[in-house]
Amino acid sequence: MPANLPPQYYAAEKKYREAKTLQEKMAVLEEMLMIMPKHKGTDKLRAALRRKLAQLKSAIEAKKKTKKGVSYVIEKEGAGQVALVGFPNVGKSAFIRKVTKATPEVADYPFTTRIPIPGMMPFEDIKIQLIDMPALTIEYIEPWVGDVLRRADLLLIMLDLTDDPLYQWENILKRLEELKIKILEKTIGFFFKKTVVAANKIDAPGANEIFEIFQSFWELDLPLIPISVEKNINLNMLAERIFQHLDVIRIYSKAPGKKPDLEEPFIIKKGSTILDFAEKVHREIAANLKFARIWNKKLNGLRVEKDYILQDKDIVELRT
Questions:
Q1: Which of 42, 55, 176, 301 is deepest in the core (most CB within 10 A)?
Q2: Are residues 126 and 205 in the same domain?
Q3: 133 and 235: one domain?
């Protein structure tokens, strides 16, 4: 019986030939196995690919024992760094393409993303850095994935409402624990990560009912946002929740006698004081700071002291 392989398989086969690392080759082999139709004509080919996959796993494990593996360090930019987490084909890459200028590959088969891909998402007058990550699969996680997730300021977990979101959620929690990451409580020996959860494909038939059932069991102190990347549903709301949970605020600087700079706000931690802001502007200004004046919706140039706690979108004039 002929194999009758689809065009996507041959495209993946080309990727395999061009792959430079063992991890890349392994990811592409998993992709090829997922794409390949299951019938007698593909039995021998499937067995051969599985043998190659087993050999690659052995080679990677051997390499781990003798040499540190590949690692990625994504320099933080913007108001915060957010790493996307989810199963294959839940819409992570499509979301990145929709809200940033990054161009991760998007396909209807899994394991398309094999390296971290950063992009900047605009939100009002700032930008937030998003990182598209390889899928958290049951079988294999790239060794460097945990490092990137642990360094991120926030995790965005994306679920697919058309494919048992509860199963995805439970398994993502398990995989994160294996990477020494907790999102529900602070635990000794684990990295605690603030998290936002997005339930994608709310536009699919029956997805509203599935979301309502899933939400009815949701007793966690985590935001759960129904979205559709394809139909652009609730993406602005999701961006707002992400900003809120980064725990940062925007402060606009104003020089004495001049108009405030409303184009590029300073980004500082929520709960910061006038003195914290002055140190962010310049160490010498902080050292010589006497007081400041504040403008916002309630205050009009009020004089405040160094320990005054700032709020989002305050306009600040530092006086030395």
A1: 176
A2: yes
A3: yes
Contact 318, 282 (CB under 8 A): no
Tell me the C-alpha distance between 201 and 207, whole Å.
7
Domain count within the chain: 3
* Domain-ending residue, one of 190, 220, 245: 245
pLDDT in tens, 225-280: 999 999 999 999 999 999 999 999 999 999 998 999 898 899 999 999 999 999 99
What is the per-residue pLDDT across 180-236, written as a single tens digit (0 to 9) for each? 999 998 899 999 999 999 999 999 999 999 999 999 988 888 999 999 999 999 999
Buried b (16+ CB within 10 A) or exposed e, 228-265: bbeeebbbeebbebbbebbebbbbbbbeeeeeeeeeeb
Same domain, 145 and 229: yes
In 85-164, which residue ranges form alpha helices assigned H by DSSP? 92-99, 145-151
Q: How far is it between the farthest Cα atoms of the chain? A: 84
Q: What range defines the domain where residue 161 resides? A: 81-245
Over the range 92-114, which residues count as b (16 or more CB within 10 Å of their CB) and which as e?
bbbbbbebbebebebbebbbbbb
Residue 75 included in any domain: no
